[in-house]
Amino acid sequence: MRGTFYINSGKLGLSGRLTAAQVRALQDAGHEIGGHTLTHPRLTTLTADEQRREICNDRVALLNQGFRVTSFAYPFGDKDSVTRQIVIDCNYNSARESGGLRTPTGSSGNPYAESVPPADAYAIRTHGSVQDTTSLATLQAYVLRAEESGGGWVPIVFHHICDGCGETFAITPANLAAFLDWLAQRASRGTTVVRMDTVIGGVLKPPVTFPQEVTPAQLFKNPSLEADSNGDGTPDCWQRGGFGTNSFTWTRTTDAHGGSWAQQVRITSISSGDRKLINLQDGGSCAPPATTGHHYRVSAWYKATTPVRFKAYYRNSSGGWDFWTQGPLLPAASTYTRAEWTTPAAPSAAKALSLGMSLDQVGTLTMDDFSLTDLDATASP
After folding, report:
1. pTM of the prediction?
2. Mean pLDDT along residues 226-243
3. Which of 213, 228, 290, 299 has the most other CB atoms within 10 Å of its CB?
4. Where would I find the H helices in the chain?
């Protein structure tokens, strides 16, 4: 027999909880793994955004560990219309609640079994959770009454399987084994045990992360430094800059982080100034526009024999270019290392931007794969 195990991904590996390896072994044995939120909260007590984090990100975490997750169970059976819609939006195919089927003490208006397919795949009814006071005869009665009333689907909810553990929602191993043995004998009568996803069906939908991850727009042109249309060794939309008294050489090198080309500058002597690679300071074909008050994040992969830093310039309203600011010193790195720096808020005088990496000591700097993003831009997922 195979069943569905609903997992809180945030509790995997905690004391008294299953490890990811144990859950993987269950899936490998043919059982279904379902989602049950990150931390098992009462969902309706949370804001809608917190519910999205609990439900969507739990499924993402399980999918990322190689589990096939299409079924969800509401913790404590707690849900409302908002919760139900969030489960749908998180790309689950079904959701199981707690209650709704007729029990010995329940409403006579409730059915003995859920319909197949269920009337609402996101409110699949059960008899509630099995407790330490639930007898073997009661479990058998759930099945027999469904058989006698025309059949259907009887999801039975187990939590702890233990003997004398003090848990309210528990069944002893002996009672569970006896119930499973009894169920096996009813297969010849047409009563079978199946997983939730077997009844519901449907494809495995893609993960949905909340908040939805948005890739900020890349503001640099030719950020990989690959294009050099005129063959002069300087990448399109970039310029080799610098000032002061120093001796230097520039190289378009094949020692690249990504692609085929990178830029390298070597200073052999210096008494003042620097050498740097920055995006082209032009009228707008290459230089990205600046927005007053916005912060910009620049990053690059670099190797250097001495500390280096990012530098930033802006175009003013007259069309000239002014030095704006610079980042902290970055350590020397013998292998390609990613560095990033966030600028202060752009001043009102800034109309366009030019940023890059600078070397102001004797040494060598190799640069590749730049990125520039506006952290305050409004983006759509």
Report:
1. 0.58
2. 97
3. 290
4. 20-28, 48-64, 81-89, 136-148, 173-185, 196-200
